Each structure stands twice: as C-alpha cells, then as structure tokens.
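Figure 2 data, in text form.
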Amino acid sequence: MRKQIISGTIKIPDKERETNLHRRIAEFARWMEKPKDAQEIFRDRRKSVPIAMLPMVY
C-alpha cells in the first residue's frame, strides 16, 4: 500500500461523539500499520470453508 502525505490544518471536533469516532479511527489505523507477530500470522492461515457456507461465498 502506498502512503499518501496529506497536509493541512487539523480541526478538533467539538462534539464528544465525533471526538470518540476520530480516536477510534486513529486507533484502527495504528492497528492496521502494526506488523503482525508470529501468533497472529499462525491464526490468519487460510482455512477451508464449511460446505454449508459455500452458497454465501459463490
């Protein structure tokens, strides 16, 4: 994924709900950028899909 540099000023949201939303988005973005450790890589291995779920996949 290519990083983009966005420049400008940051306006802090006035409402608490918006502030919490921005905080959660920032936490998610940091989590996405974090490299995976060995345990997470092991858990993310591809698995076969149960037959009952095949119609949903295709």
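Caption note: Residues 15-44 form one domain.
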